Amino acid sequence: PQAINGSEPKYSVSLIIPKKDTETIKAIKEAIETAKKDGIAKFVETVRYFQDDYPITLLFTTVSDKDFKDMIQKICNGLHFSNVYVTEIWGSRKQSSTELAELFRENGCKQVYAEPDCEKAFELAYAKKGDGLLFVVGSLYLVGEIKDYLKRRNK
């Protein structure tokens, strides 16, 4: 197992596919995109279930090479967030929290805050959620960074 950015060591798998095997490469890419869309749809479904009973705070980021404009639009469509915090992950693929915040505002979210430091963003979002629910979504990298932060914080 290997650790990435100080996170918990995990096993990984690499596939070696000949470049000429475009059919397999296309099938893998389509499966990945389907999984992403299914994940967004399930998240929206979950928030809809809870949003009438609890104030919802969202902590969000994504990587720069995802179709985050469409993702944000789907997340905001019909959902009501009390607060949205956007942040950035570490690394070359990070997406500007300022740009993400603007996209959330353009899609109807009113209380939107940009905090580039994901640990600070988590603390702000957690404090603001009050008796409501906090969802950390958008990137598994963000979830991993918050998970590692909480382990360090709670020692």
How would you characterize this protein structure?
The chain is α/β, with parallel strands linked by helices. Helix content is 48%, strand content 14%. It has five helices and four strands. It has a four-stranded parallel sheet with strand order 3-2-1-4, with helices on both faces. The protein is globular. The two termini are 23 Å apart.
Q: Could you give a quick summary of the protein structure above?
A:
This protein has five helices and four strands, in the order H-E-H-E-H-E-H-E-H. The chain is an alpha/beta fold and 155 residues long.
Properties at a glance:
alpha/beta, globular, 5 helices, four-stranded parallel beta sheet, single chain, 155 residues
Shape: globular
Helix run count? 5
| Total beta strands | 4
Order of SSEs: HEHEHEHEH
The biggest sheet amounts to: 4 strands, parallel
Q: By helix and strand content, what is the structural category?
A: alpha/beta
Quaternary assembly: single chain
**What is the first-to-last residue Cα distance?**
23 Å
Strand content: 5-15%
- Summarize model confidence as the mean pLDDT: 87
Question: What is the CA-based Rg, rounded?
Answer: 17 Å
Strand order of the largest sheet: 3-2-1-4
Low-confidence stretches: none
Which secondary structure elements does this structure contain, and how are they paired or packed?
Blueprint: H1 22-50, E1 56-60, H2 68-76, E2 83-88, H3 97-106, E3 112-117, H4 118-129, E4 133-137, H5 140-153
Parallel strand pairs: 1-2, 1-4, 2-3
